[in-house]
Amino acid sequence: MTSSADRDSATPSGPPPTQAPMRASDADRSATARVVQDAVTRGLLTPDEGSERLAAAFAAVHRKDLGRLTADLPPATSRPAAPGWRLLAMMAVEQLRATWSGALAGRPRSVRIAVAVLLAVLLIVAVGSWASELFEHGGHGRFDRD
Q1: Model-level pTM greater than 0.90?
Q2: Are 90 and 53 in contact, with CB atoms under 8 Å apart?
Q3: What is the residue range of 34's domain?
Q4: Which residue of 36, 125, 134, 145 has the smallest Cβ count within 10 Å?
């Protein structure tokens, strides 16, 4: 049997144990660093304040240490991408599409057509000249002596 002293020692006396603070992960530290960097970019913090908070963020061991670094900062508003870059990207894509569709459509230019016709005429004249020589001399070349 157990004595009453054993039963009393089995139940803890005093205040209940508090939970240990949660440890911060690298992702937690990086998220806090992004918030601090955004605050510096928006002018909410000076570069020196931002540097101090970034150093503290990367040195933090527990999540509670990270929360105090951004507690006084307003939430970041989502900003759309700069319209100039979007417009420039759309123009570049359109230019590439037009270039490739024109090349793939195979629309010959008038200069190419003229050159092709000229080469075809020269080829016909050359073949005709060769054929007439062949038939005129009966298969003997010009320089053959009879």
Answers
A1: no
A2: no
A3: 26-70
A4: 145
